[in-house]
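Run: sequence + flavin-adenine dinucleotide -> complex structure.
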Amino acid sequence: MTFDELRGALPGRVLLPGDEGFENAARPWTLTVVQPVAAVVHAADAYDVAAVVQYARGAGVPVVTQPTGHGAAGGVADAILLRTRQLDTIEIDPARRVARVGAGTSWGRVQAAAGAHGLTGLAGSNPAVGVTGYTVGGGMSWFSRKHGWASDAVRAFEIVDAEGLRRRVTAQDDPDLFWALRGGSGDFAVVTALEFDLFPAPELFGGRVLWPATRIREVFEAFQEITATAPDELTVWFQRLQIPDAPPMVGMDAVYLGDPDQGRTLLARLDAIGDPIIDKRGVFGAAHIGAITAEPTDPSPSLSRAEQLTELGDAVIKTLIDEPVAPLANLQIRHLGGALAEHRADGGARGPIAEPYLLYCLGLGLPHLAEAVKARRTAIVDALSGQISGGKPFTFLTPDEKASAAFDSATLTRLRELKSARDPHGVIRGNYPVLG
Ligand SMILES: Cc1cc2nc3c(=O)[nH]c(=O)nc-3n(C[C@H](O)[C@H](O)[C@H](O)COP(=O)(O)OP(=O)(O)OC[C@H]3O[C@@H](n4cnc5c(N)ncnc54)[C@H](O)[C@@H]3O)c2cc1C
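>> structure
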């Protein structure tokens, strides 16, 4: 079968180079990544997904599944780019507190549906991020200090395997694959739907508070104090912002999963700083967590870098507090710990992260800025060599990094063995292949 014949065989759309709309369809959310793929397929349903994998297997062409391209990493030349956005069903069972969602769904819609029942999924900061890519990479949520990795909340995956066969994967049916897909990446199967636990969240308290950058020492001290004693229900991120055409700012984002009055008390330390530029703390529902950081949802030329920090000592203060943010746009420190650090006997490949903080640097890869942004990222990492462990959450890997940075050696070995056993012809290609 040729690509043209594939086009005739599928209800979904197949776009080839030269077709109208091909370039747009091949472009990822992360615009700094170029994707010279051989074809783009917009799958209409799980049968289309199976047909594409079967075709790819026969033709010796890899399949790259990418609903949004938030995690695009390159390495896709001549592959079939499988778009799953049309697999977008959402079913919420409030009594069992379980969601079943199609693999093309983004978090914003899931949170809106769950929030209507006073429930939440283990969503992260951005409503446009796809549930599946986030979850198979582990998924670090606002609620992960309390409830763990999003991947460990999964009950079942519906998949197409590397042979092109559709099946359901649970802890009972296929414990190895179930383990690998829970945080070990999308390198093992194409997920068509997933079923995961929801958690009670009738009301949340939190929001963003910003001050002029001149208040940075006071804000950072408050961040250190709050995170030193925060219960697992409270998650706080420290933010330095250098938004184009705006003065530099420093701030904190917070979410408390519990009684709003208790949340207000836990964050009262921020009142002692005084005189914020904005203070958006308030009561809100799970559907609105994306509004806290108000990150861009449209495609962006972002260049990022994440590092797990072992402490917030003098070197961190000198490098991240005393130096200007520019040419980066954002320096963020996320408080980890809680359930993220706990080993779960029934957990998936993600496993615990012991480091208490995550550093995230973000800049824009625009032509006049890209080199300066990359140089600053490197300078920060060099200056903090004594405080960074080298480990990464899988979902925060960047195109110049490898999957091996996200796993301990025993986990990586098991993932590699499974990949070789289940996909010996390399039909399925994750964004950071475990054999890479
Ligand atoms: C603005 C922004 C905010 C973010 N915030 C957070 C956060 O708070 N917490 C966090 O943990 N991460 C966060 N991330 C990282 C994000 O979770 C990863 O980039 C994730 O890979 C995105 O998944 P996606 O499906 O949207 O992206 P895509 O690029 O479309 O997919 C990424 C990869 O996921 C796998 N995948 C996707 N769909 C399937 C499928 N159906 N079957 C098998 N594999 C599949 C594939 O390997 C694919 O290459 C953020 C990223 C951005 C850009």
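>> summary
The longest strand covers residues 204-212. The mean pLDDT is 96.
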